[in-house]
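Forwarding the complex inputs:
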Amino acid sequence: MKKVVDVSIPLGPVHPCWKEPARVKCETRGEKVLAAEVELGYMKKGIERIMKGRPWQEVLFLAERVCGICSVIHNMVFIEGMEAVSGIAVPDRAAYLRVIVNELDRIQSHLLANFSFCYTIEHETLAMYLLNTRERAMDCLERITGARVNKAFMIPGGVRFDLRDNDRAALLTDLDWIQNEVDRYTRMFDTGPLIATRTKGVGILTQEQARIARAVGPTARASGIAEDVRLAHPTYRKLNFAPLVRMEGDNHARIMLRFGEIFQSIGLIHRCLSDLPEGPIRGGGTCGAGETVSRGEAPRGELSYFILSDEYGRIVDIAIRTPSIMNIDACTHFMLPGVTSLADVTSVFVSADPCIACNER
Amino acid sequence: MRSVFWYLREFLRVPWIHAFLFAKTAPLLTPPYFREYPSLTDVECTHCFSCRMICPAPGAIEVLQEGGAWHPVIHRGHCLRCGLCVEACPEGVLSSGRILRWQEEDRTSFHATFHIAVDHTKCMRCGNCCVSCPVNKEQDPQMASGGHSSNDEVIMKIAGGKHTVIHEDRCVGCRTCEGACPNSAIQVARILEGLQGVAEG
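Prediction (whole assembly, two chains):
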């Protein structure tokens, strides 16, 4: 039989470019990648099993710890699921505060994803600039919620803390600063000739391929699919949210789309702050029995929780589906095959922003 | 030659030389709004066990009696710094970041009700739960090791060879019984509700 594959090259699970362990096995002929396979399962934690039999005040913290980068959306989707199960209404002010914290979390997550990409293509200067900007977003979150990573901000029927006037002023100052900085870095990224050689036309995911692989989030939106779960969220509807879409489907489009979404998030926070109604932040209400599927748009795409609870509000069964698994699939089957240089394998994999901790929870 | 001039012009500036000689990173300070590990205020603890009831981390908080005075003890390796105990404490014994002050300003609180569920197929009537219960101990200090009692004011006791819950309303949700049960037969469901503008109690 004719040998078509020269070398099978494994990358990872411990790789300097990746923040979390995963193994990408590439079948190559020369430098060209013919096929790829992603091997997961290096950090299974079994969080869903630990959640069973516990009330919301314990599951909330476990849900946050599914993913360290997008902890707010896990908190939000779980709590909205519990509210849907028990018929709890959220006060308007609390709903707006939730959106503010969620969008701040999206800003820091996208900045981290873009940092990670710039670091992978060895543009460390831009990477460090982005990481420095992310610190300011983390400070905003810390000022509102009291913690940087695991905020535990939302509870059934509202949020835990109100937004104070001086914190609001500081938030606006910080947002302006972030906007100026990210604007500069976006231009640097967009116009950099060396960055263009590593990003434009590399790792292309066409619209049909994205549909076949069920890609979600920025990966799908960079391939021309205008899908966003925020479109169905009542608070985002009030804010006239419309998703950003790019048509190219390459590395450059995915990173630029995330930069675009940072500006969009800043705009959403500004709109929330100007529309922020007065009133209570907690409406009360106890959790009860029921079964639901709750959805939300994580920074990486659609996140869904299947929740089954008993009459005392304890979790009987829970299943989490995180966005990264579909994006990893799209990456394995469509982005990586055809990549002409092995050096681009890492950058293509990172450009899909795979969150392994989310995936394996 | 031009580059030499450029370098001279760039680096022979007072701000640059000053920055070069006296470069110093700002000291790392914990900001006042950071939710630190809960610390004790001067308020006296009434050992209502609200903090134990709400704590999501196993083994993070205990309420102990030393020299006649009760006080909560935070185990730092277990604490998540979620700040729920600070919010749940009706007296304000604990403090963390700005939570206590904000709670007083916003009049936010948590209200909890409890349900004690015993799996009778697992329960072997040892009475450990009844003896370990701190509320039982106050109601009936003489409760025997088997969990038998002639007092009907206790939360639960072993009566007629069966675990009997009498006063579920007196439960404070501290989950001491869950820890004392050798068979994991007893579970206390804590139904928690976040409130605002309602008087505590």
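The CA atoms of residues 61 and 152 of chain A lie 7 Å apart.
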